[in-house]
C-alpha cells in the first residue's frame, strides 16, 4: 500500500472492520471476521506496486442483504464498479469496488435470492 493511514481509515472506518493492532506505518492487523485477519503493510520491491493488477485480491462475505451493505458503503464514499452481479442460479451476489490504491475487492452474499 502507498499510505498506511489512508488504508487503515478505509478498512476500519469505511468498512467497519476492527483494527486489532498497529505498529506505526509498518504494519496494521485488521479483523475481517470469521477468523480472517488482514495484514496491511507498505509496498516493497518484491511484489506488484500498490494499485496494479495482482497486488491484492480480496473478497468479503456479507451477512446482510448485499444491496443494504452497498448502500451503506456508498454513503461512506466507497465507489462500486457497476451494479450487483448475480450468478445464473440466483444463489450468489457480488459487488465490486476498490480500496484507495485501486486494488480490487468484492462483497459476496451467498444464498442470495432475488
Main attributes of the structure:
114 residues, alpha+beta, 2,3-Dihydroxybiphenyl 1,2-Dioxygenase, domain 1, 4-stranded mixed sheet, 3-stranded antiparallel sheet, 2 helices, globular
Can you describe this structure in just a few lines?
The chain has 114 residues and is of the alpha+beta class. It contains 2 helices and 7 strands.
List the SSEs and their pairings.
Layout: H1 4-14, E1 18-23, E2 27-33, E3 36-40, E4 58-61, H2 66-75, E5 85-86, E6 92-98, E7 104-110
Parallel strand pairs: 4-7
Antiparallel strand pairs: 1-2, 2-3, 5-6, 6-7
Instruction: Say what the CATH topology of the largest domain is.
Output: 2,3-Dihydroxybiphenyl 1,2-Dioxygenase, domain 1
The rounded Rg comes to 15 Å
Q: Give the full name of the CATH homologous superfamily of the largest domain.
A: 2,3-Dihydroxybiphenyl 1,2-Dioxygenase, domain 1
| Sheet with the most strands, sense and barrel status | 4 strands, mixed
Strand content: 25-35%
Give the strand order, joined by hyphens, for the main sheet.
4-7-6-5
Percent of residues in helices: 10-25%
- DSSP summary: helix tally: 2
The pLDDT mean sits at 87
- Overall structural class, as computed from helix and strand content, comes to alpha+beta
Uncertain ranges? none
Shape: globular
Q: What series of H and E elements makes up the topology?
A: HEEEEHEEE
Q: Count the domains.
A: 2
CATH class of the largest domain: Alpha Beta
CATH architecture of the largest domain: Roll
Q: What is the CA–CA distance across the termini?
A: 37 Å
Number of strands: 7
